[in-house]
Amino acid sequence: MRLGVFTPLLSHLPLEDALAALKSLQIDTVELGTGNYPGDAHCKLSMLEDASALQEFQRKLKDHGMSISALSCHGNALHPQQALAEKAREVNRKTILLAEKLGVSTVVDFSGCPGDSHAAQSPNWVTCPWPPEYLDLLRWQWDEVVTPYWTQHAKFATDHGVKIAIEMHPGFVVYSPETLLRLRTIAGPSIGCNYDPSHMFWQGIDPIAAVRLLGEAIFHVHAKDTQMYSANLSLTGVLDTKPYTDERNRGWVFRTCGYGHGAEWWKEFVSTLRMYGYDGALSIEHEDSLLSPGEGLARATHFLSEVILKEKPAAAWWV
């Protein structure tokens, strides 16, 4: 297992400067956004039609000794406004084609969330089974929107030798191990997850127990922490809609690795991932509103380097 970084936190830097900064932290693999929510600061889909730009991009990566763990195009391809859905879908399709060209096996995405009808203007995330119309809506979303799109899109990915790692994120139809496995059953084995433990913590899901449930469906992993504030949780519950920057009043906030849970927890998390066959990148994602991106990245890198190092067997003295 090795450390990587999801590069939107360095989007203010040109690609070469971002790679140099990461190399100084002994990072040698990156997750690159290609559009939709992550943006495309370091990886342009226009390279699909520009062979020289693609070669130059690959040269920069090679010169810095950097590999790509995944391309990421988190968007809402199920948005009820057709123009917005199609825009996200175009980015998703092109990202798969670019991954194929680059020899990258994994594309990270969201599942998306439809509205309450084909005439809706906004997504509608169902969070409870009653009143009964909510379950009717949920059935309609999965049967009429989720299943047709993801069955077709998963086949497109398979045809191009790419796996899709869905990030389980509240606000979308796939937000938990149960909903991820439901989509995987519908769309097939090319659908798995980008596993971000920070999204499990605040839902009350044990992230390590969930690794055991997901197993081979884990295609990629984000390294991000969550700190729970029990004093506020009694007031807010976990479905806290206050801005992430209102840290004093929220029930929980995203934190840099090590600031929500200590090394003992992270060592067990890494060990369990290995136990269930994952040996890819731990891609650091910075969304800690209490630390600057540079500070958060440096601290997460130092912290996780120690965690991974201590998980490796010591070199045998007699070799």
Q: Features of this protein?
A:
319 residues; 10 helices; alpha/beta; two-stranded antiparallel sheet; TIM Barrel; globular; 8-stranded parallel beta barrel
What would your notes on this structure say?
The protein is of the alpha/beta class and 319 residues long. The protein has one domain (2-311): TIM Barrel, CATH 3.20.20.150. Helix content is 42%, strand content 15%. It contains ten helices and ten strands. It has helices at residues 15-24, 51-63, 82-102, 133-159, 177-187, 197-201, 207-214, 230-236, 263-275, 293-311; strands at residues 2-6, 29-33, 67-72, 106-109, 163-167, 191-195, 218-223, 225-228, 252-255, 281-284. The strands form two sheets. It has an eight-stranded parallel beta barrel, surrounded by four helices. Strand 5, helix 5 (177-187) and strand 6 form a beta-alpha-beta unit. The longest helix is centred in the middle third of the chain and has 27 residues, at 133-159. It is globular, with a radius of gyration of 20 Å. The two termini are 23 Å apart. 42% of the residues are buried. Mean pLDDT is 96; it is low at 310-319.
CATH homology-level superfamily: Divalent-metal-dependent TIM barrel enzymes
CATH architecture: Alpha-Beta Barrel
The rough form would be described as: globular
- CATH top level is Alpha Beta
Please mark out the parts with pLDDT under 50 across 5 or more consecutive residues, or reply none: 310-319
Give the number of helices.
10
Number of domains: 1
Strand order of the largest sheet: 1-2-3-4-5-6-7-10
Distance between the termini: 23 Å
Q: Report the major sheet.
A: 8 strands, parallel, barrel
Number of E-type strands: 10
CATH fold annotation:
TIM Barrel
Determine the structural class based on helices, strands and strand pairing. alpha/beta
Share in β-strands: 15-25%
Average pLDDT number? 96
Order of helices and strands: EHEHEHEHEHEHHEEHEHEH
**Gyration radius, in Å:** 20 Å
Task: Determine the fraction of residues in helical runs and give it as a percent range.
Answer: 40-55%
